[in-house]
Amino acid sequence: MAVIAVFNQKGGVGKTTTCLNVTAALNLAQRNPIALDLDPQGHLTLASGTPAVVADAGMASFFKHKIPLSNLLQETPGGWQIIPASLELAKIDALFGSDPKAATLLRQGLREDLSLTGAPIMIDCCPMLGVLTLNALLATDRVLIPVSADYLSLQGVHRLDSALNALENKLKRKFERRIVVTRFDSRRKMAFEIYEKLRVRYGALLCKTRIGETVALAASPMHGKDVFEFAPHSPGAADYRALVQELWESGFFS
Hints:
InterPro entries: AAA_dom, DNA_Partitioning_ATPase, P-loop_NTPase. Residues 1-175 form the AAA domain. This is Sporulation initiation inhibitor protein Soj. Pfam families: AAA_31. The chain is α/β, with parallel strands linked by helices. The protein has one domain (3-249): Rossmann fold, CATH 3.40.50.300. The protein contains 11 helices and 7 strands. A 7-stranded mixed β-sheet has the order 3-4-2-5-1-6-7, with helices on both faces. Helix 7 links the parallel strand 6 (142-148) and strand 7 (176-182). The N and C termini lie close together (7 Å).
């Protein structure tokens, strides 16, 4: 069972878009993925076309009421499964912040309830390093980091890399990482400069596939669809197919 946390502390970098469309591409490849929405904003839930959940449903029920994860799965219109989020997740830090064992709840839940499925599990993380994100990171050893092709995102990924290094030292374990450049505009010289700076610093950790800035990727969440449902022949769909193929061939999903 591969568990992949999609994480970046900076907003607007395509984190949810990447989680949504990587999950959808895995589904098209018949890998039967499961997505977990760990962001209280619930953007992955909305973008996937999943009906709104009541306050204590979805992932909040797992943390607050110990409801088994398999009981919380919902099927999206795209045909893959999700455990949705609600604003109630925002209370998890306050409820469990003083409990050192709280960060391992998701890891235990996955092992006890979903490990036998063998399905790849994609986690859309909250954009800050709190109890929810620590649960995601402790449940996996793989992190996919979307970075938009701009200067501030470049600085943000350096800080995130340092934070992950510090967490590795504390936990005495490694996170296998991949960085994917998103919102790449080939008309802008700066986009190529940002990509080259990332390549020089991170080498093989940087995906060769770049996700272009396209209308289909921006518009599909508004319709509650992944890009393959919304515009299957668009450049955005082609980019995410290529990304999943690259990650699969590198062993990132195994």
